[in-house]
Amino acid sequence: MSWKKIDGILTQLAVGRDNNVWGINFKDEIFQYTGQTWRNIEGLAVNVGVGADGTVWVVNRFDQIFAWNGIGWTNVPGALVQISVGDKSQVWGVNRADNVFYRTNGDVLNGTWVQVPGLLINVSVASDGTVWGVSRNRDIFKWNGKDWIQIGGKLKQIYTSSESSVVGIGINNNVLQYKDGQWLQYKDIILENVAISIDNNLWGIDSMEEIYMFQPNSTTSPLTPTSTSPTTSSTVTINPGYPAGAIIGLSVGLGLALIICGATILFIIRRYKKTKFPEVSGFSEVVRQ
């Protein structure tokens, strides 16, 4: 099995079924892979998600959300910095505050965003409803429908296309795949971004923004156990964060307290300077002696 270099330069990509690959380059330009070359799609984005049914959503540099309608982009209310698509009914994302959301009904115009407890910087959803995520301190989580289950290991990025297809980028940029309760490492490849399709086509981007596709050419497994295998799982509550209003209120309160304290000290100093203290008898005599 080997990695085949694909012509082109990208910074992030996502893949649906049958190598339906979409990507973003360093200029925020959007591209779709045709099987031979990359077709430029109108618009600008920083992150793209592709579903198994061909559904495509993107977010741009201003956190605006758009869904591809086949001929153009439909603006969707909301604000996200990263988005993931399993299919038209499975769309998840995270915002600039690391809050996690999913789209109800998958409806572009009439759907709504529902917030899920917890803070993540990267979330990935599959068409079967499988959801994985990575927190800011690189911990790995899997959604069970109501809670986040922490999975052993550390990742920079994660991508899932089904319950059995989960890949990620490790701390040292090694490519990992989750199988049978443990993380296995792909040999001889270092990447910055990785994606796997529902039919197990693996794509990635390295530090030079070069694109690779994994091609099987033998029966030898390309995977080896990592030092974190096997992993353990536990149900945890991801830090929900603090409401912005509470933080602002606390800051204002502390500021007012400091101002009052400073004014009080200044008043005491001024009174001290104006006060004429009586001479202590005997002091001058002691000095003269």
From TrEMBL:
<comment type="similarity">
    <text>Belongs to the tectonin family.</text>
</comment>
<keyword id="KW-0812">Transmembrane</keyword>
<protein>
    <recommendedName>
        <fullName>Tectonin 1</fullName>
    </recommendedName>
</protein>
<keyword id="KW-0472">Membrane</keyword>
<keyword id="KW-1133">Transmembrane helix</keyword>
<feature type="transmembrane region" description="Helical">
    <location>
        <begin position="242"/>
        <end position="269"/>
    </location>
</feature>
<dbReference type="InterPro" id="IPR006624">
    <property type="entry name" value="Beta-propeller_rpt_TECPR"/>
</dbReference>
<keyword id="KW-0430">Lectin</keyword>
<dbReference type="Pfam" id="PF19193">
    <property type="entry name" value="Tectonin"/>
</dbReference>
<dbReference type="GO" id="GO:0030246">
    <property type="term" value="F:carbohydrate binding"/>
</dbReference>
<dbReference type="InterPro" id="IPR051513">
    <property type="entry name" value="Tectonin_beta-prop"/>
</dbReference>
